[in-house]
Amino acid sequence: MVRGCGACLATVAALGVAACGGEERQDADERAGTYPVDVLRASFPAKQRLADQTSLVITVRNAGDKVIPNLAATVEAGDKTGEATTSGNAQAFAEVSQEPGLADPSRPVWVLDSGPRGGVTAYTNTWALGQLRPGQQKTFRWRVTAVKSGVHSVRYKLAAGLDGKAKAVLAGGNREPDGKFVIDISGKPAQARVDDDGKVVKTDP
């Protein structure tokens, strides 16, 4: 099941509408079943720098013979071992601070500049791109800027719907389609120079 905001999930379940908006619930036409997918691309730079914008990209193909009701992706930040550290209302690219008494425990590792177009849901760390027909593919793309140095990780999970009835599996098996990236974010700014064509070139210090 795709994770999201606890209050939103409760409202969705109780009222049958999308929380935080009152529109028709996004899983209204979700059919229970198992839907095989291929992850054609999953990329996120392993070396990054503070204040540099990068992209997390995941391309998914429907490898089955049924229409996927609502292709969804959940993103969680984690520690350097890859263990997820988000919970409750944590944002997608944030870690949860263990400091007691905080009104908002989320502490961003990356600032989300833009998410997958048309993919916003009621959940704080999940995006959905709608139906995916057999053989077709869609791409999730997040543009983010690193704001915390050190070694961090990002995990993603794919689903075929938003309420857990439609389950995505990797083609040829029963494993949930997911993955992990471990990223080293340097606090040292990149050196820059202008080349002979007038372009700015960044290099390691």
Secondary structure topology:
Blueprint: H1 6-15, E1 33-43, E2 47-49, E3 53-62, E4 72-78, E5 94-96, E6 106-108, E7 110-114, E8 126-128, E9 137-146, E10 150-159, E11 166-170, E12 178-186, E13 191-194, E14 200-203
Parallel strand pairs: 1-11, 2-12
Antiparallel strand pairs: 1-3, 3-9, 4-8, 4-10, 5-6, 7-9, 10-12, 13-14
What structural keywords apply?
1 helix, 5% helix, mainly beta, 42% strand, Immunoglobulin-like, 205 residues, five-stranded mixed β-sheet
Give a short account of the largest sheet.
Answer: 5 strands, mixed
Report the CATH superfamily: Immunoglobulins
Quote the distance from N terminus to C terminus: 44 Å
Question: In the residues, how many domains can be counted?
Answer: 1
- Kindly identify the CATH topology: Immunoglobulin-like
Strand adjacency order, main sheet = 7-9-3-1-11
> What is the level 1 CATH name?
Mainly Beta
Question: What is the tally of helical segments?
Answer: 1
Strand content: 35-45%
Taking pLDDT < 50 over at least 5 consecutive residues as the criterion, the unreliable ranges are: 3-24
Q: Which second-level CATH architecture applies?
A: Sandwich
Can you describe what's shown?
The protein is mainly beta and 205 residues long. The chain has a single domain (6-188), classed as Sandwich (Immunoglobulin-like), CATH 2.60.40.10. It is built from 1 helix and 14 strands, in the order H-E-E-E-E-E-E-E-E-E-E-E-E-E-E. The chain has one helix spanning 6-15; strands spanning 33-43, 47-49, 53-62, 72-78, 94-96, 106-108, 110-114, 126-128, 137-146, 150-159, 166-170, 178-186, 191-194, 200-203. Strands 7-9-3-1-11 form a 5-stranded mixed β-sheet, with no helix packed on it. It has a 5-stranded mixed β-sheet with strand order 2-12-10-4-8, with no helix packed on it. It starts with 5 loop residues before the first helix and ends with a strand.
